[in-house]
Amino acid sequence: MSRGKTIAEKILSAKSGVDAYAGQIVNAEVDYVMVNDVTGPIAFREFEELGMEPVRERMVLIPDHYVPNKDVASAEQAKEMREFARRWGIGNYFEVGRSGVCHQLMVDEGFAAPGRLIVGADSHTCTYGGLGAFSTGVGSTEAAAVFATGRLWFKVPESIRVVLSGGFRPGVGGKDLVIRIITDIGVDGATYKAFEFAGDGIAQVPVSDRLTIANMAIEAGGKAGIFPCDSLTEEYIADTVKGDYQSYEADDGAEYCLTLHYDLGEIEPMVAFPHLPENGRPVKDADVSIDQAWLGSCTNGRIEDLRIAAEVVKGRSVHPDVRFIVVPASPRVYRQAMQEGLLETFMESGAYVSGPTCGACLGGHMGILAAGERCIASTNRNFIGRMGHKDSEVYLAGPGVVAASAVAGRIVTPEDLEAV
Amino acid sequence: MDAVKGKVWRFGDHVDTDQIIPAERLVSENLDKMDEFIFEKVRPELAGNIEKGDIIVAGKNFGCGSSREHAPRSLLQAGVSCVVAESFARIFFRNSLNVGLLLVECPVEAEDGDELEVRPEEGKVLNLSSGAVNGFPQYPEFVSELISAGGLMQLIKEGRF
Predict the structure, then answer these.
(1) What's this model's pTM, rounded to 2 decimal places?
(2) At the top level of CATH, which class does the domain A271-419 belong to?
(3) B148: part of which helix (H) or strand (E)?
(4) What's the topology of domain A7-262?
(5) Chain B interface disruption, residue of A27, A42, A103, A275, most B CBs within 10 A
(6) Are strands A134-137 and A59-62 parallel, antiparallel or unpaired?
(7) Residue B95: its chain A contacts at CB < 8 A?
(8) CA torsion A125→A126→A130→A134, rounded to 10°?
(9) Would you say B132 and B117 are in contact if contact means Cβ atoms under 8 Å apart?
(10) Do A73 and B90 lie within an 8 Å CB cutoff?
(11) pLDDT above 80 (res B117)
(12) Domain definitions of chain A by residue range
């Protein structure tokens, strides 16, 4: 009998037609390839040099980083994407108003689904592992190669098995867990590897939190972060998924390079200090005043995150010295937040509500930091100068902590607000 | 592949792609002048003083973070002949293969200004200033083929992928 397989090995075997195990290099059929307004232009140039026909229906073009156009240079760049889409008849191009943070849009529009192999010229493409896909970030040239051939080479990764048990305490979620994991293994702890989540604790992790966790697999260097598909996944994508999908589960005899165990009940609210995501500490140990709180991004800009944050600020006011910026990740999230009255709650509290964009998460626009300023953000990276000036600081946390900190003017948990 | 020789710019662990070239510079109008912006937030003196052939020496996880291919492209534009690091982040590694930036995975002792020679065929890094010599293993066959072809697009053009 052959050796058991991990989910990553199964998906890459299915897509390559090779009985593949960790360490092998395979040439696999890609279900979707996505580029954004920053990585697209290089891909378009590389592709057009080839003089080949594109795999149109598998290409997804999403402007999100610098749109709505923040200046003339980004306007020219967004125009390149628009014109490329027209020139080549790419149906899956999403114009401003129908567009949002690319990874949320890939979920909302039903491109991301269990068992699919998806690449994107954006490092957080690993997000769709939250639904059971094998998805990973690539460069512009590799995206162009997929435009032309529909295929890409992959080194089948070893997998780190993360066994979850128990359930989160109130006020704790996926962001806290993933900061904990990255802090434990380091920002290169999963380089060239995939995370595979397992254990009965998974049923206690909402799908939106799974997307958050998978999204930050790259912050430990990971190639992918994969959750098995269950009834919660099926329910989550039922209304949106395009086409059929096939889910995979790991075999009993699958081999892992490392196994980690987490009792979700023991995870505390976490915050990652500058300038690496591995600098996680329990929020209770933080004594940091802030100038800005930023809620949004592919990590925590979903409706579930907005609900958590709105619940915290409801009936309260944003601290007079703080700008609280709320950026729903997609039109679907935005509309839902509007219908549920969340946007009104944010505005009542004194927050600024923006339309969907990556915005300041990567230092683009909509909330750039000045020298010496500190921001608590629901985003994924706190690198030097990530959200603006090189002498500004970014602290990463979940939506509840971001909202509570906006009210308190310093980094606290929602529970701390109750105590005041 | 020919040996390269140059002056060392020394970095530590976890140099992320935001440090190599900040996100706000990633617009098409900058694509031909990205060398002006490399390391501007962390080592602003570097871009103006780097010389053709210079070598970056770093610790673990060089090129972590964003998938921006602008990172290896900007280093190439600046004349960097090779990056020698203890380890590389995955996407940066693959991007470098495709744009033709030579990467060597090997921990070496070197300081700013040291003279370094990298001999890819022999798998050796020589610190000409200190006399130290380090060895590194060859890449797997497919990766070597990709490097000698000049990247994935070249393989496609030649009908080899």
Answers:
(1) 0.98
(2) alpha beta
(3) helix B141-149
(4) Aconitase; domain 3 (3.30.499)
(5) A42
(6) unpaired
(7) 139, 141-142
(8) 100
(9) no
(10) no
(11) yes
(12) 7-262, 271-419
